[in-house]
Amino acid sequence: MVASSVSPTLDGGSITSITIPCKQTPVSTDTDSVTTPTTDEKETLDTENNKSQPLKRKKKPVPGKGFSKSRQGCYNCKRRRVKCSEAKPECCSCNRMGLICVYPEAPRPTLKRSHNTVSSNSKSCVNLNHLQFYHHFLLEAYPPAPHGAEPYEFLANAILGLSAQHLTLFHGADYSIQALDLRVAAINGLNEALSQPCLTTIDADARYAAIIALTYQSAYMPDAMMEFITMLRGWMFIQTKVVPDLEMSMFRNFTREAFVGSMKQHIARHLTNKNAILLDDYLASLKVVRVLCQGTAEIKYLSALERLGRLAKQSPIEAFLEIAPCYGLTNKMTEEEFKAFTEPSNSCARVLLSHFIMLNYALEQHFLSPQPKHFAFCKEISTAWVIRPFCWVIIMGALWECVCFILRTLGAKDQQNSTYVTLSTLLFLLAPLWINAFAYMVISRLIYFLHPKQTALSIPARWLAKGFVAADIISFIVQAAGGALMADQHSTENASLGRKVYMAGVGVQLFFVLIFVVVVTSFYRQVSFNIRTGTLKNRNRWIRPLILVIFLVLILIVERITFRLIEFSGGVSSSNEILRHEAYQLYLDALPMLLALASLNLVHPGIVLKGPGSSFPSSKIHWWKGRSAAFEPITLQSFDRREHSSAE
């Protein structure tokens, strides 16, 4: 008798289990005595089993099923969204369907990157801008680079970053963010490459070419004077310790002797200006700077500049040929001397570097002016490294005051010409607004530079500058419109309307100046507290004097505004006693502004606002900060082959 039971399966079918009862027989050690079913019983069992099981439908095979997932499949399988067997030369799907099987190109081998290194692949992936940068590098920005540089990603990034910075400087397009991204990727890759010994001469040449490109890029970057010096030091390190044999390198002619020889040939072909260079003021300025030099590195640097200046005065050609070794003066310093020399608080070092840059620029203009295409960056970068950009505001205020009194002098000689009176009146009324705006900008930058949170009264320093300068511009426009109407001597109505408009503009200016006085007071109290407790990192002794000078300037501006409100409240007529006597305007308007200008020159903001963080970054860079790898802290690490071999 046969018993059967049905049990469900996972796929919805069923399995029939069959139980066959049989008689028990005595167990024997003889194998032949074991009871087994006969052939007829087997056939009967198979027949009953087939009847009890339902018929299963045979499924069609799914194309690509059973193959592991891969991103290297052919284009046909990618388009059909099926798995590819990756069989070469044709996959199974293309062979079955009669299609032409085409695989994507295999990726090129790249330098293996460590997981500890900051990844920047997403920032430096190839795009159309990179093709433009490389094309520009081949045409114009071309420091020598070795052949076979494709496997060295850090070298490619350095070349593209150099080209992007060169385009930004000369062609009006802003690729500064891309240049910084590529620069970060190049420095990270070069640091990783320097942590490994050079296996071939090409490896050493690639590292050498990368530091050359990074150094030239820093020479094209505004406000990167100290970074340029640091890269020069890295250049010297790689040349002396990483390149095993300079004679076997592709840069064997990249030496001082080769530079002097090429410059001699260039001067012989293009020299047209044989006049001497006037350097008396340059040497006199160095004598004044000598009193400020205290460290050994500063004194040695000053002595080298004096020797070069005297040589340039006697023989400009010889001085020009000696200028290249002077770039390496900082490379001869010890680590302690170099660190002290490049400190942001070392103002003497920056003065010395400014003298060197100016002398270098004068010599290059004297001998290389026929080639402005390749040497034009000297003027732009030298100016950007030395001059503070926001000081043009106070220069405009002083210039307008001077032009005003020049026109008044000319008007006194030619009293029939009303043009002198009109222009001098407008300049006299509007010039103090430049001084007011400069006070706003200085205090906002001081807050950004010194305050830990870069805020005052919970207002960010950038918005303080934007808000108060915008208010000053509005006041400027209103006062200019009112002054233009008051200058119309043919219409009494226009003069009266202009007086009211001008007084409204002066009132707006006074309102915002008083609010700004509150901001400055709060900032000064916090700075004084931080100085007393020792929590202020910047130890410059001119911080509080500069803030007090800004206080004085604001008080003088309030006094001048009050005088103008009293003056025009009496109307624009001959009965107004203040308008009839010019002494009131000279003592209560011109003299306070002269004192303000003199105070800002005695305690100049540049004494305090120097070094990293002393200026607002551009709006584009401020937006990208935190979104781009270009703003991560980067350093060029060092590596000594002897230390590596001893460690192994």
UniProtKB/TrEMBL annotation:
> Which CDD domains does the protein's record reference?
GAL4
Q: Which GO terms describe its cellular component?
A: membrane
* Residue ranges of every copy of the Zn(2)-C6 fungal-type domain listed in the record: 73-103
Per UniProt, the keywords (alphabetical) are: Membrane, Nucleus, Transmembrane, Transmembrane helix
Q: Where in the cell is it found?
A: Membrane
Q: Where is the composition biased (Low complexity)?
A: 25-38
Region (Disordered) spans which residues? Answer: 20-71
Ranges of compositional bias, category Basic and acidic residues: 39-49
Q: What is its main location?
A: membrane
Question: What protein is this chain from?
Answer: Zn(2)-C6 fungal-type domain-containing protein
Task: Please tell me the species this chain comes from.
Answer: Trichoderma lentiforme
